[in-house]
Amino acid sequence: AAYSNEGAVYDSVDNYFSDFTVNPVVEDKFSFTFPTKQWKELSEQGVSFGYGIEFTIISATVPRVIRVAFVEPGSDAEAAGVRRGDQITAVGSFDINNATQAGVDAINAAVFPSAAGNYQFTFSRAGTNLTPVSLLAGNVVSTPVPLASVRTINGSKIGYMVFNDHIRTAEQQLVNGFNTFAAQGVNDVVLDLRYNRGGFLFLASQVAYMVTGAAQTNNK
Predict the structure, then answer these.
(1) Which of 93, 96, 95, 72 is nearest to 82 (CA)?
(2) Distance between CA atoms of 190 and 41, rounded to whole angstroms?
(3) Are 177 and 205 in contact (CB under 8 A)?
(4) Using CA atoms, how far apart are residues 127 and 55, in angstroms rounded to an integer?
(5) Inter-helix orientation angle 170-183/201-212, to 10°
(6) Report field, pTM of the whole predicted structure over 0.85
(7) CA quadruple 173, 152, 197, 105: dihedral sign
(8) Which of 73, 94, 165, 200 is the most buried (most CB within 10 A)?
(9) 133 in helix, strand or coil?
(10) What would the pLDDT profile of 82-95 be if each residue is shown by its tens digit?
(11) How many CB atoms are located within 10 Å of the residue 41 CB?
């Protein structure tokens, strides 16, 4: 009944998603809510809000471990020298393990920015703290296929492609990458989906076709 009150449709939908994403008994880690405007900007134009960093939270409780999983090419984060694998040790004047409410609020505001502005981070790399950097939160245009290269290993040509988002702006980048592979006569393809968050199914279908050809993908 909590999910089907026709007199309060929005409340019903909120109850449904809340139970699936919060309730430990029926938790579904693949369900989430996303503002329509933000989804359209991301899926159609590749625009998202942040620094150009994809963080991975290894431990959300003390001792907290938050690392950089990926840095968007051409972003403010890349310009500031942030690299994959860097670990947050402080946000502003707050140590990453600060347990006060002010510290927790500051860490959350910086890692998940919702308003434009500068946020100061201290990162460590290989166990050594780096000089604090100020990162500007704002709209970032992603490159869904940031790498498509050909490597020769033991005489075999290997096409290596990083594919990060099934969004509309990926289509031409995918075509360009696979055309490069075809022109250079690759024998095998490595499709790196480590940071891929999914998206349009038609792009998944196109990628399958470009890898294997029509005979393997028609009506599949």
Answers:
(1) 72
(2) 29
(3) no
(4) 18
(5) 0
(6) no
(7) negative
(8) 165
(9) strand
(10) 999 999 999 999 99
(11) 16
Mean pLDDT of the residues in the chain: 92
Would you say how long the chain is, in residues? 220
Q: Which 3 state secondary structure label does DSSP give 64?
A: coil
> Can you tell me the distance from the alpha carbon of 196 to that of 204, in angstroms, rounded to the nearest whole number?
11
C-alpha span between 198 and 78 (Å, rounded): 24
Tokens 């790196």 correspond to: 192
Confidence at 22, pLDDT banded by 50, 70, 90: low
Q: Distance of alpha carbon 69 from its chain centroid, rounded?
A: 8
pLDDT tens-place string over residues 96-119:
999 999 999 999 999 999 889 999
Q: What is the amino acid identity at position 104?
A: V
How many angstroms separate the CA atoms of 182 and 185, rounded?
Answer: 5
8-state DSSP, 218:
T
CA angle 81, 87, 89 (to 5 degrees): 105
> At 66, which helix (H) or strand (E)?
strand 65-71
Conformation bin of residue 50: beta by default, left when phi > 0, alpha when psi is -120 to 50: left
Tokens of 116: 């434009």
Q: Which two tokens stand for residue 197?
A: 């968050």
